[in-house]
Automatic annotation (TrEMBL), chain B:
Keyword Repressor found: no
Upper lineage: Eukaryota, Metazoa, Chordata, Craniata, Vertebrata
Example GO BP: GPI anchor biosynthetic process
InterPro entries per record: PIG-H (IPR044215), PIGH-H_dom (IPR019328)
Organism annotation: Phocoena sinus
Protein name, per record: Phosphatidylinositol glycan anchor biosynthesis class H
């Protein structure tokens, strides 16, 4: 029977003493957490272990002895070490030994039958597995398949193989609180025994986080109460709010900020990751927005944009009118349905005329409006992008109308053709007009471009909203925190000596990080992806650049 | 102790199987794939550059030639780092688990470890691969819900694709260790 002993690498150079840890009988493995040095009083050691057991719900006991000497231990020491086995009785009793300055280890595990028959004690083979205590403590294991009955708040350590080892180390923080400068009765060796690991900035941040969170939470609740007041629920305003993507983005950000600055502590590591991801995403957004604002103001782009807007709008309207005149004639020599041509052409021309008048009416106010809109970039780059998308939608509303009419008619034609094709494959063949009618001409490149740009802007905003930046940063800089599993390496082996393995953490691949920690978006475009955008353009299904009612998340 | 044998893969390329015996409960198999040949590298580079030169004579834009050089370099680096596997290793540790490591030509290593509690058995399966029928070694994983069911099949040595004689060697050693492990676990 091969027993496994998980030994921390930090204790490999520690002085002789007692091994303290947890024995997992189902895996027949012992997880060594610390080494208690001589001299000690057994009663005090037992008290300390009882305290740790109470605090951490982990069954910490004395597992055996550890011997780090210059040469092989003498007979008297051997008897002394075995005598300890009688004081702290544990089955099996491990005896690890290492010669100072060499790589040869020896270990044996005995089943103590009692002082009456020492010769009948059996010995088992032991396999030593070294692990980095600090990394295993901080790491979070991501199992490949989520077991359905795994709860986050289990009070007892789980029994799933390597997960048990990770769990044991993570729960035993109470054991690692004392370092070698403490004046306690028992002297321990573990990863923090050279000094507790802490950072001044982290401590200050923790101290300041309380009042800051409280203040910001009050402020945010005031803002959300103001935005939920009855005035905004009246019909015209509520319709406009629901259609504009800016309002949706602002609401989404408000929700995220409320969650980040809520005064409750995060319950599980997944919630903590989510909060951290949201915070980093908001900070990056604001930073990018401020950069954009400074760039706009430095080059005075707003003034230039306002001056260029009217001539560009006039030019576009003129081009569209020329295009419609051409289509109403005989485009590329094709003979069209003259009556339908004239009707649609005149209809569109009237649209363009209305729109041009509207733009000329707005022209004195454009620069002011643009300047105020530019200020909104300090709320975040996503807000600026949403406003840009809304402005494009409003300015090109007429083009969108043309797109809707054209796409609907094109869609009808496509459906008609496909039903005709089915009919042809059946018994009857109806000779209908197979020729291409006037409304199925190719959509103007400008219309396609505008609609595609709007769709792309929305996808970009969604991407920025949902990317888990903190998790990706953690995976890049501290890969041992997110673990997909472990990997083993066999260390130098001599015959007659026990097998030694080094256990290292296998980090989670980037695709799984994004998949596991993806933030929920505002749910406004759940069906949109780059592929479906192209598909909709091709088949003539309508693309709605505004938010759809009923797609909002509760 | 270590020994090395030479086998061939399903396409006829040469494979080298290295077996390291650490202890009766720990065994490691390392299968090294055929290396990238100078002939294939030259062929690909020449094709890309001829195509670029053809485009250059059409468009008279020298950016195409620099772009072709960049594409060749980046493509080669990407191929060595993400696609070309140098050797595959299988490490079996009794009562701990089975570990598979793939080492790429650029030195990158990707490891998967399966705990012994999840392993049902290691078997040789037959499969239809393009126009051939080939044998492959795979690990059967236990189903957590049903005790004797199988939830997943994990194939081994997918890039090396050795033939049956090599697979039988690995299979025999794996079965020895698994049988030993099952005997000790049922005797508890």
């Amino acid at each position: 029977m091969v027993l496994k002993a998980f030994f921390p690498t930090c204790c490999a150079s520690a002085d002789s003493g007692l091994l303290v840890g947890r024995w997992v009988p189902e895996q027949s493995s012992a997880v060594v957490l610390a080494v208690v040095h001589f001299p000690f009083i057994p009663i005090q050691v037992k008290e300390l272990l009882a305290q740790v057991q109470q605090a951490s719900q982990v069954g910490v006991t004395v597992l055996g002895t550890w011997c780090h000497r210059r040469q092989e231990p003498e007979e008297s020491l051997g008897h002394f070490l075995e005598g300890l086995g009688a004081i702290f009785s544990h089955k099996p009793w491990f005896q690890l030994c290492r010669e100072r300055g060499s790589k040869s280890w020896s270990c044996k595990a005995t089943h103590w039958q009692g002082p009456a028959s020492p010769a009948a004690s059996g010995e088992d083979q032991v396999m030593l597995i070294f692990y980095d205590q600090r990394k295993v403590l901080l790491s979070q294991l991501h199992p490949p398949t989520a077991l359905p009955n795994r709860q986050a708040g289990d009070t007892t350590a789980s029994a799933g193989g390597l997960a048990a080892v990770f769990d044991t180390v993570a729960r035993s923080e109470a054991l690692f609180q004392s370092d070698r400068f403490d004046e306690g009765p028992v002297r321990l060796s573990h990863w923090q025994s050279e000094g507790m690991e802490a950072s001044i900035l982290v401590e200050l941040a923790k101290w300041a986080a309380g009042p800051v969170c409280l203040f910001l939470a009050c402020l945010l609740s005031l803002i959300s109460a103001a935005s939920a007041c009855r005035v905004f629920k009246l019909w015209p305003l509520s319709f406009i709010w629901s259609k504009l993507s800016t309002c949706e983005q602002l609401r989404h950000r408000l929700e995220q900020l409320t969650l980040i600055f809520s005064t409750q502590k995060a319950e599980s590591p997944a919630q903590l990751m989510r909060k951290a991801n949201m915070l980093v995403s908001v900070l990056l957004d604001v930073a990018l927005g401020l950069m954009l604002l400074s760039w706009l103001h430095r080059k005075d782009l707003i003034g230039q944009l306002a001056d260029a807007l009217i001539p560009v709008a006039d030019h576009v309207a003129e081009e569209l009118q020329h295009l419609l005149q051409w289509l109403m004639g005989a485009p590329a020599g094709l003979k069209m349905n003259r009556a339908l041509d004239q009707v649609l052409g005149r209809f569109f021309l009237y649209h363009i005329h209305l729109w041009i008048s509207y733009i000329h009416l707005m022209s004195p106010f454009i620069e002011r409006i643009l300047w105020h809109v530019g200020l909104s970039a300090c709320l975040g780059l996503t807000v600026a992008l949403s406003i840009l998308s809304d402005i494009i939608a409003l300015l090109t509303f007429h083009i969108y109308c043309f797109y809707v009419y054209g796409a609907r008619l094109y869609c009808l034609k496509i459906h008609g053709l496909s039903s005709l094709w089915r009919l042809f494959r059946g018994k009857k063949w109806n000779v209908l007009r197979q020729r291409v009618d006037s409304c199925s001409y190719d959509l103007d490149q400008l219309r396609l471009l505008v609609v595609a740009v709007q769709g792309l802007i929305h996808l970009l905003v969604d991407l920025i909203n949902s990317l888990p930046l903190y998790s990706l940063g953690l995976r890049l800089c501290r890969p041992y925190r997110l673990a997909a599993g472990v990997k083993f390496r066999v260390l130098e082996h001599e015959t007659g000596r026990p097998l030694r393995l080094l256990m290292q953490i296998n980090p989670l691949p980037y695709s799984r990080v994004v998949h596991t920690y993806r933030l929920p978006t505002c749910g406004c475009h759940p069906k949109h992806s780059w592929g479906s955008l192209c598909r909709k353009l091709f088949f003539g299904e309508l693309i709605y650049p505004w938010r759809q009612r009923g797609n909002k998340q509760d | 102790m270590e020994d090395e044998q030479s086998f061939s893969d399903i396409c006829g390329g040469r494979l080298a199987l290295q077996r390291r015996f650490y202890s009766p409960s720990c065994l490691e198999f390392s299968l090294s794939c055929p290396r990238i040949t100078l002939r294939s590298l030259t062929a690909v580079t020449c094709t890309v550059w001829l195509a670029a030169y053809g485009l250059f004579t059409l468009c008279e834009n020298s950016m195409i030639l620099s772009a072709a050089i960049f594409i060749t370099l980046l493509g080669l680096l990407g191929y060595l780092h993400f696609v070309k596997i140098d050797h595959e290793t299988l490490l079996i540790i009794d009562s701990l688990g089975i570990q598979m490591t793939s080492s790429y030509a650029s030195g990158k290593e990707s490891t998967t470890f399966i705990e012994m509690g999840q392993v049902n058995d290691v078997v040789i399966n037959e499969a239809i691969y393009m126009q051939k029928v080939i044998y492959y070694l795979c690990i059967l994983l236990k189903d957590p819900v049903e005790p004797h069911g199988i939830s997943q099949v994990v194939p081994l040595f997918q890039s090396a694709k050795p033939r049956l004689d090599c697979l039988i060697e690995v299979y025999r050693s794996c079965q020895d260790i698994l049988a030993h492990q099952k005997a000790t676990s049922t005797s508890l």
